[in-house]
Amino acid sequence: MTETALYSTFARVDLEFVRGRGVWLETASGERWLDMMGGIAVNALGHCHPHLVAALTEQAEKLWHVSNVFAAPHQEKLAHRLVETSFADRVFFTNSGAEALECAIKTARRRQFHEGRPERYRLITFEGAFHGRTLATIAAGGQEKYIEGFGPKVDGFDKVEGFDEAKVLAAIGPETAGILIEPIQGEGGIRPVPPSFLAFLRRVCDEHGLSLIFDEVQCGMGRTGKLWAYEVAGVAPDILASAKGIGGGFPLGACLATEAAAAGMTAGTHGTTYGGNLLAMAAGNAVLDVVLEEGFLDAVAQKGLRLKQKLAAVVDLHPEIFQEVRGEGLILGLKCRRPPAGVIAAMRDQKLLAVAAGDDVVRFLPALVVSDEEIDEAVARVEAAAHALLEAEKGAAA
Question: End-to-end CA distance of the chain, in Å?
Fold first, then answer.
């Protein structure tokens, strides 16, 4: 194999897939793998969903890109559907989650400027958060392993440890513009934020004239069994960043905001070349067509409960390896009693794909169309992996 021409920024697994269908991936040699990571919560409808393929194919034969200089009825259609199904009044389309978060951050800052408080630009963020890989979003996340080596971190973010009300109040100052939080921390280890804490943040933002920003890049778009993760807690934000599942695998992100929050984002204050292109809008509308079908989200909630209960049984069987199950719907994590790399490797030996997260957690983020039978098969493979791991450890100790 020739030396790679790629950046060495990914610790890639030597495994290549050539086709997929639903929650199954296939190698060139015909090996079939059960995909329970879904491209890290991206493939909401699985691989090659026929409705998504048809929508992209139809649009690809018409027009791909004309830029945001011109009228955008393709964007208006998806934006209206997102507004009708959320708290929001306005939408800005991006290509990724990090860009959606950048827009959210700028929207919160611009709101304060627009309302006559230009000194307010700082956002309160939380330990364990992950908001993207741009210079601003790594600063927002505040994790040193992502910040190191890139010079002075972008100013304007004040990190709070834990979901601690007193620490949040102490962090609010004359320069605070808003609070940014994931309703369920994904990269941080599938850690749901208590609904009471989200409600507290809503009250604090209302009392202090701040914007409440939710990062739903990983936990939104039906993954919890609700279209939006904030619906689980019953607490609406002022601004929300969405991506991953919203495009079903096609690069697409969106920043949603209330009229008041978005009022300062006037012509020329923000922009994008590719964001909201016709292919992305076709993909986004196709995803919503399926996710908004009657009974679809209820089925996601039921399947999430099934997977959670069955994973909990594996925890009971193998307490030497696993500690607990976390999450909601089909964004679940197994907390491990050891580094998850070995656990994930054992799962790969069973041709099962999962992905690591912080706090020694293995994430399960399957397509929302996963069947009960595929859930059962996945859990059987988790059990087989745990058994093999224990046997290997016994053999090494003998």
Answer: 38
